[in-house]
Amino acid sequence: MLDLSGVPLKEKLIFQPTCTVCGLVSGYTGTGSKTVLPAEARVKLDFRLVPDQDPHEIFNLLRAHLDEHGFSDIVMEGYTLEHPARTPLNNPLTRAVVNTVKDVYGMEPTIMPMSPGTGPMYILCQNLGIPAVSVGVGNFASNNHAPNENVIIEDYIQGIKHMAAIFEEFAKEA
Q1: In this model, does residue 96 exceed pLDDT 90?
Q2: pLDDT for position 115
Q3: Most buried residue among 15, 42, 48, 53 by CB atoms closer than 10 A?
């Protein structure tokens, strides 16, 4: 267990890859007790990659690691295998987003140079050279990705105003 907090913890979250155990299923999970050994187990993993990592290489490295430690019988399936993507902070689109935050929201933006999420941005950003940034609406009580995820109407309206300001500013920059 790492004893990190503050900036070092944020740097680790934003700039380093992760492996997340998203789910585990094995054995008897019904009501009551059963003393049986499970015939199979399943795990779903999610690897968040950083620039210059290849998802196919990471997949193959995991396969080699399992084989090396005696788990060659484990069947693996790759799903999205998305490459990481990043738009430079000095890109005109990025500048347009940053420049409009204060006008719309009345505060300085929080800039995260990379997002701990997955999406098909590599095809647009790196392959086609189209910039992409993530601008969201909501607040800490929005419960992102939870069953009760929500957006306050005023946050939604401010988000629309921000998008309009970004379009206007980006048109000047481009």
Answers
A1: yes
A2: 76
A3: 48
Could you identify the residue written with the tokens 């990592």? 53
Tokens describing residue 153:
């109407």
Nearest residue to 55 via CA among 46, 43, 64: 46
| First-last CA distance in the chain | 46
d(CA 101, CA 76): 44
Please give the torsion angle defined by the CA atoms of residues 38, 72, 75 and 84, in that order, rounded to the nearest 10 degrees. 130
Per the structure block, which two tokens stand in for 46? 């999610």
- HEC profile of the chain: CCCCCHHHHHHHHHHCCEEEEEEEEECCCCCCCCCCCCCCEEEEEEEECCCCCCHHHHHHHHHHHHHHCCCCCCCCCCCCCCCCCCCCCCCHHHHHHHHHHHHHHCCCCCCCCCCCCCCCHHHHHHHCCCCCCCCCCCCHHHCCCCCCCCCCHHHHHHHHHHHHHHHHHHHHHC
R_g (Cα) of the chain, nearest Å: 21
Between CA 86 and CA 151 the distance in angstroms is 26
List, for residues 56-83, the tens digit of each pLDDT value. Answer: 999 999 999 999 999 999 999 998 898 8
Q: Of the ranges 55-59, 96-100, 104-108, 120-124, which one carries the lowest mean pLDDT score?
A: 120-124
Whether 135 shows a pLDDT value over 60: the answer reads yes
